[in-house]
Sequence to fold (393 residues):
Amino acid sequence: MRIKKGNIFQIASFVVILFTSIMYALYIKGLVDFRIVSPSDLNPYGGWSHLKDFFTDVSYRWRGITKGISLSLAITITSLVAGRFLCGNICPIGSIQDFSNYMGKKLKIKQVRVGNNKVLDLIKYLLLIIVLGLSTIGLGYRVAPFSPWLGLLNILSGKVTLIGISILLLILITSLFTKRLFCRFLCPLGAYQSLISVLGLYKIKTNAKCEGCNYCLKDCVVELKSKGNKELPPECVSCLRCVSSKCIKDPQGYQVHFGNKRLSENIYLISGLVILLGFYIILPMAFSNNTTGWTMENLNLKDGVYIGVGSGFGGRIMTEVTIREESIENIFVRSHNESSGYFEEVYRNLGMDIKSGQNLNVDIISGATATSRGYIGAVRNALSQSMEQKVGE
Fold:
C-alpha cells in the first residue's frame, strides 16, 4: 500500500489517541500524576449528552464549554467548512477499517462490493435520530456502550468491555472483505457530518470535460460512483483518494473546491486539522467554568454513615459517606450506571478533593460533567442528612 497524505494523517492521529489512552490508564492506576485527556474528552458525542439536562432539567444552568462539548462543536464547524474531514482522515474507527480491508486484500480474501444503496444509507440517519432522541430524554447512557469509538478508547486505556470488544471485532471482520461498512451505513456521527456538510461551500468535483468513467473513484473507500454527476455526494468521507488519483483522460480529474476556489490537498488537509484542533482546544479555554458552585463551608456534621443519592449521566449514583469527628472521612460509591471512561477519574479525584478541602466547591472533571455533578449531588445528599441529624440533637 502506497502511503498517501491521508494515510499519514490516519496513522498519526491513531498514534496520538493510543498514547493519550495509555497515559490515562497509567494516571487512573496512580502510576503517573497527570493525564493529557480522558476518553470522555475524546468522545465526539460529548455535546449530545448535555441535551438531556438542557431539555429536561428545570434547574439546568449553563456552566461553560467542556472538552466533550467543544469536540462536538469542532466537528460541526469542520463539517461545515471541510465536509467529512474527520471520517476520512482522523477517525480511528475509519482507520482500523481501512487497515483491516488492506489486510484482507493481502490475505487474498474475496472482496464483496456492496455499492451504493439508498435504503442502507438511510439506516445511519435513523440511528442518528434515535441517538439524539435518547440523549434528549436522558437515556443516552443506554446506547453509549454500543459506541465503537468509546469502546476503542476504553480498550486502549486497558478497560476491555464485552460489548466494546464484540462490536470492534465485528467491524474488523466485516472490513476484511468489504470497505467501511460501518461508516457507510451505521455511523450516526457520519450521518450528522453529511447533513452539516450539505450546508457548507466545500465540494469535491470534477471539470466539465469529465465523461464519468469512474477511474478516479476506483480506490474510493465508500465505493462512490459519479453516475454522470460532476460533484460527489455528501456520503463522501473526504479521504481524497480520488483527488490524488491521476485521471486517464484529463490531468486535473477531481479537485477540492471551497466555493469557486480550488484547494490543493495540502491546504485542505492542513486547514481541516487546524479548524478541528483549534476549536477543540480554544473553546473550553474561552468559555469554561469548572467549579460546581456548591459550597458547604463550616459544615456542622453528626458522626455516622450516611447514604446519599444523586443523578448522573447513567441515572442514580448512590454514595456512602462516613463522618468521623465532624469531618468527611471516606466516600464510597455503592452503586451506579455510569459508562466506563467517564466515572473512573470522577470517583478517584473528586472524593479526594472533597475530603482534603472538606467542601463541595471542587473542580468538576472535564468531559464527565454529568457524572461529576451526580457524584457531588449524592455526597451533598448524604451530608444534608448528617446536618439534619446534628440539628435534631
Observations:
- Residues 304-391 form a domain with the Sufe protein. Chain: A fold (CATH 3.90.1010.20).
- Strands lie at 202-205, 255-258, 261-263, 304-312, 315-324, 327-335.
